[in-house]
Amino acid sequence: MKFKFDVQGRDQADPFIFADGGMYYLYVTGGDGVEAYECESLDGVWRYKGAVCSFEGCRNFWAPSIIKYEEMYYIYVSCDEGDKFEHMMVMSSRSPLGPFENRKELYDRFSIDSHIVQTSAGLFLFYAEDNKEGERIGTRIYVDKMLDPYTPAGICREILTPSFDEEIFQRNRFGDGRDWHTLEGAFWFREGEYQYLMYSAGCYMNDTYHLGYAVAKSDEEDLTKVAWTKHTADGKFDPVMIKNEYEEGTGHNSVIKIDGKYYVIYHARDYEKDGNPYWQCRSGRWCPMQVKDGVLTLTHP
Asked: Which helix (H) or strand (E) holds 16?
């Protein structure tokens, strides 16, 4: 089944869920800063905590992720600053609700949709950036090793590339006949012998916008060395979530495991939008997910 978060009618684009100290936190995109919510359970009433990460001179705080590392909390987010469009920042705090301070720029180029993770080999940052090389140009998924929470190693390895027309963001974007593709919103997790990398693809305003995933049967701890295989149905497009009978714009997810059960956290739009633009209609939702032997399956109603 799929459920909306009870957040008193607010929007929650790009929801990232985080559990700490018996509490669940939800971090979402915001115009003036990263907005946050807290609750004791997925299906409870989520309390809005306002903008917990913001800084003067920046706007449009996109797609945050957070990690607790050596008793400190680090939040990674992209924002617009001056003539820089969606470049990656990191800030730290002693509380999951901030205030987040000590800002540092990670990349001065377009870099979005962070997921910061830790393995026995260290910290790794998944993110998306543009690549105009190859037959299918567009935004792709990368991974970089972090020397510490503030310092990327600069490996920036491209790990997922477009392969389907359903991943096209805009046709003939530059007037030269080439279509622009988009893979973004990477989220990594491990279960048993397998590692999984979920992602969003396509254009958020089109019917083909969807969640997909790649898988690797690997115990490799250095995530810059993992070889990923995109999930398909015998080579054909096979999303794990896409527009359905009761919602559209399904994308940008995170994942959480509670009492041995997995849940995918994502945003979507209801069909009845009362004339509002798409960015005012994306609400956070959650859906049970089966994870078994390299295959992800959502539990539909």
From this structure: strand 16-20
Two tokens at 206?
């089109």
CA distances from 301 to 114, 266, 298 (A): 31, 16, 10
Three-state secondary structure call for residue 166: helix
The residues facing 261 across adjacent strands are: 258
Give the closest residue to 209 by CA, choosing from 286, 109, 278.
278
pLDDT tens digits for 51-95? 999 988 889 999 999 999 999 999 999 999 888 889 999 999 999
Tens digit of each residue's pLDDT (9 = 90 or more) over 115-170: 999 999 999 999 999 999 989 999 999 999 999 999 999 999 999 999 999 999 99
Distance CA 190, CA 194 (A): 6
Q: Give 19's contacts (C-beta < 8 A, 6+ positions apart).
A: 25, 256, 258
Ramachandran region, residue 213 (left: φ > 0; alpha: ψ -120 to 50; beta: rest): beta
Read off the pTM: 0.95
Separation of first and last alpha carbons in the chain:
5
Q: Are 15 and 266 in contact (CB under 8 A)?
A: yes
CA angle 10, 12, 16 (to 5 degrees): 145
